[in-house]
Amino acid sequence: MKLHWSPRSPYVRKVMIAAHELGMADRLQTVRTVVAMDKPVPELMVENPLSKIPTLVTEDGTILYDSVVIMEYFDSLVGGGKLIPTAGPARFIELRRHALANGFLDVLIYWRTERGRETPLASMLQTYETKLNAILPALEAEIDAIAKTPVGIAQITLAVAGDYMDFRFPDLGWRDRAPRFSAWQSTFRERPSMLATPVVDG
User: Fold this and answer.
1) Gene Ontology terms, cellular component aspect (predicted)?
2) I need a surface site. Which of 18, 109, 141, 190 has the fewest CB within 10 A?
3) Rounded average pLDDT over 164-184
C-alpha cells in the first residue's frame, strides 16, 4: 500500500501509529509528500482532489483519504473492532471522543497557521484560545474513563495532539493546566508505536 506521508503531519502520524499498533506498518510504502493550505499539489490531486495527506492507495488501487477512514480501513484488514468498536454505545462513544480529539488537532493547526500570518487576526487568535480553554477541561474530566478503554482512534489522536502541542505550542503550558491528561499522555507516548513515529520538522 502507498501512503502519502510527511513526518510533521499529525494526521499522518495518527495513521502510522495505527499501522504500528495493528502490526501492519511493514505493509506501507511511504511517499514523502509536501502539502500546504495555500499550495495545492497537482500530483497528489490526481489521487486526492483535496490535496491533503494522509492519502492511501490500497493494494487493489482503491484510494482512501482522511485519517479516520484510513485507520478504520486498517482495522478492517485485521478483523475489525480493534481500534473502533463495531457496534453499540462503545462505538459511538469512541467516535465522539475521536471527534473531540481530531477537532482539537484542527484547532491547533488553524491556530498555528493564524499565528504565522504577517498580521494575525486578533479575533481568530482569541477564538482558538477560547476553544483550547474549553477542550482541556473536557479532556481532564474524561481522560480517566478514556484510559480504561482499549487503545483506539481516540487515544491515538489525543496522544498525537499532546505531542503536537509540545512541538508547536511550547508557550501554552498545557501540561500544568491539564495534569491528568498530561500524565496519561506522557505514559502513552512511550508506546512503541509512538516512539516509531516521531514528529520532526523535516
Assistant:
1) cytoplasm
2) 190
3) 95
**Pair type for strands 2-5 and 29-32:** parallel
| 18 and 99 housed in the same domain | no
Q: How far apart are CA 36 and CA 51, in angstroms?
A: 9
Tell me, yes or no, whether 186 lies in a domain. Answer: yes
d(CA 162, CA 34): 23
| CATH number of domain containing 32 | 3.40.30.10
Q: Could you tell me which residues are beta bridge partners of residue 56?
A: 3, 64
Distance CA 50, CA 118 (A): 26
pLDDT of 39: 79
End-of-domain residue from the set 36, 51, 77: 77
**Per-residue confidence band for 202, with pLDDT thresholds at 50, 70 and 90:** low
> Residue type at 200?
V
Residue that is last in its domain, among 21, 55, 77: 77
In a domain, 137, yes or no: yes
Residues of the chain above pLDDT 70, percent: 100
What domain count does the chain have? 2
Q: Say what the pTM is.
A: 0.95
77: which 3 cell numbers? Answer: 484488514
